[in-house]
Amino acid sequence: MEKPGKEKHAGFEKFKGDRKGILASWYGPDFHGRPTSSGELFNMYALTCAHKEYPFGTKLRVVNPKNEKEVECTVNDRGPFIAGRDLDLSYAAARKIDLIGPGTGHVIVEPLGRDLRYVKYIRYGASNGILTIQVGSFRDEANAKRLKAALEINHKNVYVIEANVGGAQYYRVRIGKFNNKADAAKIGNALANEGYNVMVTKFEQQI
Asked: What is the C-alpha to C-alpha distance for residues 113 and 14, in angstroms, rounded to an integer?
C-alpha cells in the first residue's frame, strides 16, 4: 500500500457523545492482516471496530445489554456492509461482550473521545490542472475494492484506476474530479480529518 499520510496531531481528545442502541456483528480470521479503511492492518486480536460514520480514532464504549458486559474499542475501519448493521467488532472486542456465539446482537455504543493521531495532513502530488484525490494504492485489487466500498458509504464519485509502475500493477482508489486546488482541498481536508490517507494528484482518464 502507498506510504501513509503524516499524522496531524498527537494526544487524545476526550468528549462524551450520545448513547445509541445499534445492531452489531463481528469480523475476524477472513480479514486478519488485511488493510483497514484507515490504512492500518486489521488485527483480530486488537480492540478495534468498524463503523459507518465515526471518524477513525474514535474510542467507543460498547455494552451488551443482555449481560451488561462492556468493552472499549477504537474505530479504525468502515463497515459493516450488511443492511441494518452499524458496527463490526473485532474478534477480541466481540469476545469481551460474549458476541462471538450469537454472531450479531443489539448493543449500546457511547463515544468517549478520539485518538488525534488518526487525523492526517493532505499531501500534494500535483496542485495545478485537473485534479483528483487518491486515498489508497494497492497491489491487491481486492483491497482496492474494499476501500472503494468503504468510501462509498459516505462519499460520491469513488473509482479505481489501474497503474503500471516499473512493471508492477497497482490499483489506485480515487475520489472526484476537480478544476482547481481549492476545490480538491475542501474535500481532501474533510477526508484527512476523518482519518484517511489523502493525496491530491493529477486526474487521469479511466480506460
From this structure: 4
Widest distance between CA atoms in the chain: 57
Whether pLDDT at 3 is above 90: no
> E strands along 82-167, which residues?
87-90, 104-115, 122-124, 131-138, 158-165
Residue-wise pLDDT for 89-128, tens only, equals 999 999 999 999 999 999 999 999 999 999 999 999 998 9
Q: Please report, for residues 24, 141, 147, 171, the alpha-carbon distance to residue 50 in angstroms, rounded to integers and kept in the order given.
A: 10, 21, 12, 23
In a domain, 145, yes or no: yes
Residue 105 and residue 188 share a domain: no
pLDDT at site 180 = 96
pTM over 0.70: yes
Q: How far apart (Å, rounded) are the C-alpha atoms in residues 156 and 139?
A: 24
* Residue 96 belongs to domain with CATH number: 2.40.40.10
Of the residues 93, 117, 141, the one at which a domain ends: 117
What are the Cα distances from residue 90, in Å, to 38, 93, 147, 192? 15, 5, 18, 24
